[in-house]
């Protein structure tokens, strides 16, 4: 895990969308938010969850690993950058490879866009925009020691399973101490492939992708 990173605490999220609004102010993608505010049980619960890039490091982020144009660079401190506009060809390989469903594709510009941990800020010791405006601390930026000093006994996870694959991440998630499994199960059952329903019992798990308009891309 990176020394200073984002810790996501789903239990503190109130769905206020302050993080979404703040993300739109980032100079690298002004006007477009790279945060997905998800509702895991929409229609039955008000529970919400901010989803940011997890900056995978196992040993290379899946999105960077499958990029045929080497457009997705990883910095020395483990931050997975959004696609280089001079190299990205809009193939969407990264969208399909990401187990967390983070990258977006701007279909008109043929360009991948995603959270880069506000690298223009974090590279100089400043917190990402989303963490600076979160009123409840659902997005906490700092070290795990700083997090535990503020929230004694908190448990965090930075490895997740997707089927038989374990993905280690640079961003961590707060998990219930009494229910934690190591690594933490990730992903959602596949319910549709190419428009056809599949048997969830035999499908395993997989991530999803999003277009720039926020719509899910099933596969």
UniProtKB/TrEMBL annotation:
PROSITE patterns: 4FE4S_FER_1, 4FE4S_FER_2. Gene3D superfamilies: 3.30.70.20. Keywords: 4Fe-4S, Iron, Iron-sulfur, Metal-binding. CDD domains: DMSOR_beta_like. Residues 4-34, 79-108 form the 4Fe-4S ferredoxin-type domain. Pfam families: Fer4_11, Fer4_2. The keyword Kinase does not apply. The keyword DNA-binding does not apply. This is 4Fe-4S ferredoxin-type domain-containing protein. It comes from Streptomyces xanthochromogenes. The lineage of its organism: Bacteria, Bacillati, Actinomycetota, Actinomycetes, Kitasatosporales.
């Amino acid at each position: 895990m990176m020394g200073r990173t984002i810790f996501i605490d789903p239990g503190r999220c109130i769905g206020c969308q302050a993080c979404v609004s703040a993300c739109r102010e980032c100079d690298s993608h002004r006007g477009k938010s790279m945060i997905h505010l998800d509702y895991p049980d929409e229609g039955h619960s008000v529970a919400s969850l901010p989803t940011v890039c997890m900056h995978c490091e196992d040993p290379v982020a899946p999105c960077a690993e499958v990029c045929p144009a080497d457009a997705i660079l990883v910095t020395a401190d483990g931050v997975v950058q959004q696609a280089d506009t001079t190299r990205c060809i809009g193939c969407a390989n990264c969208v399909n490879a990401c187990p967390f469903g983070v990258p977006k594709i701007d279909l008109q510009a043929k360009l991948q866009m995603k959270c880069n941990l506000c690298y223009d800020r974090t590279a100089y010791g400043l917190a990402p925009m989303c963490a600076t405006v979160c009123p409840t601390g659902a997005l906490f930026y700092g070290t795990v020691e700083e997090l535990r000093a503020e929230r004694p006994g908190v448990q965090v996870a930075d490895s997740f399973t997707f089927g038989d694959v374990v993905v280690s991440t640079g961003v961590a998630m707060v998990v219930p101490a009494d229910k934690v499994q190591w690594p933490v199960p990730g992903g959602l059952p596949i319910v549709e492939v190419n428009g056809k329903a599949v048997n969830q019992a035999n499908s395993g798990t997989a991530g999803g992708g999003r277009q720039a308009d926020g719509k899910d891309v099933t596969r």
